[in-house]
Automatic annotation (TrEMBL):
Keyword annotations from UniProtKB, A to Z: Ligase
Catalysed reactions, semicolon-separated: L-cysteine + L-glutamate + ATP = gamma-L-glutamyl-L-cysteine + ADP + phosphate + H(+)
Name of the molecule in the record: Glutamate-cysteine ligase family protein
GO molecular function: ligase activity
Ligase found in the keyword field: yes
Pfam families (UniProt xref): GCS2
Species of provenance: Pseudonocardia zijingensis
Organism superkingdom: Bacteria
Coiled coil: none
InterPro entries: GCL_type2/YbdK_subfam (IPR050141), GCS2 (IPR006336), Gln_synth/guanido_kin_cat_dom (IPR014746), UCP012666 (IPR016602)
Lineage: Bacteria, Bacillati, Actinomycetota, Actinomycetes, Pseudonocardiales
Length: 501
């Protein structure tokens, strides 16, 4: 979806040509996976962070374009909402102190963005869902003016044929906050609710021969990632899931009518349905199951490019892949004339702090390496349905929802991390060549988050509950919570150390 799209209407023949071109790209990719050399260099990592802008009243600020101009860096880009920005850091390897340097680089970049935002009358908020959003903010006029977003909005609403419906029932299984579950239902005439979801996206370049193992391992870890990294408990004033971003994203991008859902038609925000043996499995599913949203075809012929000894861009395949939002997405790309593939992990929310996000990333990368190189793959010992259930349970309940883990059975996520996964993550990072002091610094943050049972989501919930107990109504409590959140987030103190009023 980062590709430029300069059209707003498409004919039947456009869609027919596009389907054929996607298939031709698939055929070319199949040949490349069999015969063509892919990048063999040290695996590279990448990081993207989606950001929010708020005004002095802590409501969303539509100053995104002005802030981008003020920053003047190609690393910052527009996002779907006019109150959103996206920061894309350059790829870097894992070994040594690279991710210690990345923490410092990210702190510096966000400090610049914060200063430029202030110059434009706004503040930067690094959080999964902006808790001060109201229904009046989620309108078509709040979408960024980029043509690709206007086209996406029109095509998704046209495919759905009716308003976007949000229907999210909250839950508090622990009874910790002592109040009844809340329920949000609302209809919208644009895809603006999708812009309420701000995430951190982790990339890992791998060789095609090992891609399936890394993708399967990432699917196994999705529930654990969410449980220890949840940071989105509020939406439109309602207390909902620990990571409400998950159902919000699924529903705001759902182009199916209720009848199509009842028929079992697959959603475009998708966990998947099976373990894979090749990256081609995922791209083939994309072409087989999902109609085009933006059927833009290029003049190039990937098969002809291959025959001429060139590396094809597979533009239609990549554009189609960008309109199917898997939580772990396959990526094909070309850098310096050499093709490579990546796993793009889209599970985690943005925030609460830079140090928390880096800790989440290294915990993930370390566990990936250990699981992929295990004598018996974890995914051979659990069903795909169990991995998906873990993902949904963690999104609903955070650290309070038990997960299934092979060899252990049902276990609370914090206990699983402390007893089994932290040592495995440390071992994996050692295999990547990460310096021990870097590993100790960041994995200790995940450890203390589990020891204190304090995630971004639990801190938000506890802070709002404390302010409400003190007499504040919900809007006032959310405002007070966000005021404190912005202060602590900018200070880069890990969330497990944040005080509750």
């Amino acid at each position: 979806m980062g590709q430029d799209v300069d059209r707003r209407t498409f004919s039947r023949r456009d869609r027919q040509r596009y389907r054929a071109k996607v298939q031709r790209c698939l055929d070319a990719l199949a040949i490349m996976l069999r015969d063509h050399p892919f990048a063999h260099d040290e695996p590279m990592t990448g990081l993207e962070v989606e950001l929010n802008l708020v005004g002095h009243d802590l409501a969303p600020s539509l100053a995104g374009a002005d802030v981008l101009d003020a920053i003047g860096s190609s690393q910052f880009q527009s996002e779907l909402g006019r109150w959103n920005l996206e920061l894309n850091l350059p790829p870097r390897p894992l070994p040594g102190d690279e991710w210690g340097h990345l923490e410092r680089h990210l702190v510096e970049e966000l400090a610049v963005a914060r200063a430029k935002a202030v110059d434009c009358g706004a503040q930067l908020a690094v959080i999964g869902i902006l808790p001060t959003l109201e229904r009046r903010h989620l309108v078509v006029d709040a979408l960024s003016p980029d043509q690709r977003y206007a086209t996406l909005n029109e095509q998704m609403l046209s495919a759905r044929g009716e308003p976007i419906r949000l229907d999210i029932a909250g839950d508090d299984p622990s009874g910790k906050h002592g109040v009844a579950p809340e329920h949000l239902q609302a209809d919208f005439d644009s895809i603006a609710p999708e812009a309420a979801c701000t995430s951190m996206q982790l990339h890992l370049q791998v060789h095609p021969d090992s891609f399936a193992g890394y993708w399967n391992a990432a699917q196994c870890l999705a529930g654990v990632q969410l449980a220890v990294g949840a940071n989105s408990p509020f939406l439109l004033g309602s207390r909902l899931w620990a990571e409400t971003r998950v159902p919000l994203f699924e529903q705001s991008c759902d182009v199916r009518t209720p009848e199509l859902r009842n028929q079992g038609v697959r959603p475009r925000v998708w966990f998947g349905e099976r373990w894979i043996t090749s990256i081609l499995d995922l791209f083939s599913e994309n072409g087989r199951y999902f109609p085009a949203l933006m059927p833009v075809t290029e003049d190039s012929d990937p098969m002809a490019e291959l025959e001429a000894g060139q590396v094809p861009g597979l533009d239609e395949l990549r554009l189609h892949n960008g309109t199917i939002w898997r939580w772990n997405r396959p990526v094909y790309d070309v850098a310096d004339g050499v093709p490579h593939v990546r796993v793009e992990n889209r599970v985690l929310p943005a925030g609460p702090t830079v140090v928390d996000m880096v800790a989440n990333a290294l915990f993930f990368y370390g566990l990936l390496r250990t699981l992929v190189e295990a004598e018996r793959p974890l995914w051979s010992m659990m069903s795909f349905e169990a991995a998906e259930e873990n993902f949904t349970t963690a999104a609903r309940h955070g650290l309070d929802g038990p997960l299934y883990w092979p060899g252990t059975g049902w276990i609370r996520p914090d206990e699983l991390v402390l007893r089994k996964l932290l040592p495995q993550a440390a071992d994996g990072l050692a295999r990547w060549g990460v310096e021990s002091d870097v590993t100790d610094r960041f994995l200790s943050i995940v450890e203390q988050r589990c020891v204190t049972r304090r995630t971004g989501a639990s801190w938000q919930l506890d802070t709002v509950a404390a302010l409400e107990d003190g007499g504040a109504d919900r809007p006032t409590a959310l405002h007070g919570m966000l005021t404190r959140y912005l202060e602590w987030s900018a200070a880069n103190e890990p969330v497990h150390t944040w005080p509750v009023p």
